[in-house]
Amino acid sequence: MTEVALLPDPATPLEFETAEAAFADILDGRVPEEAIIRFITDLTLREETATEIAAAARALRERMIEVKAPAGAIDVCGTGGDGAHSLNISTAVAIVVAAAGVPVAKHGNRAASSKAGAADTLEALGLNLDRAAATAEESLEELGLAFLFAQTHHPALGKLAPVRKAIGRRTIFNIVGPLCNPGRVTRQLMGVARTDYLGTVARALDLLGTESAMIVAGDEGLDELSIAGGSRIIRLGAIGDREEHVVPGDVGVEPHPLTAIRGGDSAYNAAALARLLQGEAGPYRDAVLLNASAALIVAGRTTDWQEGADIAGEAIDDGSAERLLQRWIAF
Questions:
Q1: All structural domains of the chain with their residue ranges
Q2: Binding region
Q3: Are strands 145-149 and 104-108 parallel, antiparallel or unpaired?
Q4: Which of 205, 215, 206 is nearest to 181 (CA)?
Q5: pLDDT per residue over 115-168, tens digit each?
Q6: What are the annotated GO cellular component locations (predicted)?
Q7: pLDDT, tens digit, for every residue of 307-324?
Q8: pTM for this predicted structure
Q9: Annotated binding site for anthranilate: which residue ranges?
Q10: Quick one: CATH architecture of 74-150+171-330?
């Protein structure tokens, strides 16, 4: 019989070791659901600290199913929950950046608050998710691209689905998931749907030993760089520790209203992504160039926003990105 563990009182911030032990007990099934719900809800209402987020991520990383990623691999992933229901920006960015020569271990899941998450759209494009999971290390090595399906690599989180459903709101797990790439990448472009949480997430990533990262949020509360207006950014590590504010013009593209990149179901989003990779111009392309430029800066491929957009645009226009997608589907 599994021993029942007691969780600490979250009324005041928890030390790293205390928080990590608490999340280890939660993830290992030693805590009753009612106690987990109270603990996580109290943390959310108080607002989690960077230390608590990093500790929870450390506990989850210890329990994830890992894959070996090439040196210099990056992830592009957001927390979701921004309510914008946009086309799949980070999924498209992953393909374009990989086509530009940067290995991308794309971490993602099915839709939670939107109609089509990364997994849904990739599946609609023809990617076999089971085969992609089974061949992730090989596709990373040979193609420079893999999709690391959260459901496959984080079984401990899957067991908490009833708890998260019962809570019915954003919790620490929405933030922790993107911090736990199964390839243990140390370079990351991470979107956060709350501009006031950027500093907290940045400190958590720093505690986890991130080599290079941008934590970004559109001024409208988007979990990506906004094509509609400005975006707040915190840089970490090799690309410099500083804050900045970026607008579409910084990468040489025009701003567009968010309605111009509103998505639909997986078939709709997949068709839009396919047209993008075939060279279709417009708001979707511009949003992808903006975010791809950030990813290329994180990867160390460039230090200049405009150059990053140019590199991404060339990967689309010369057909590299579309060919990579087709090779990936057939892999």
A1: 74-150+171-330
A2: 78, 81-82, 86, 88-91, 106-114, 118, 164, 223-224
A3: parallel
A4: 205
A5: 688 999 999 999 999 999 999 999 999 999 999 998 899 999 988 989 999 999
A6: cytosol
A7: 999 999 999 999 999 999
A8: 0.95
A9: 78, 109, 164
A10: 3-Layer(aba) Sandwich (3.40)
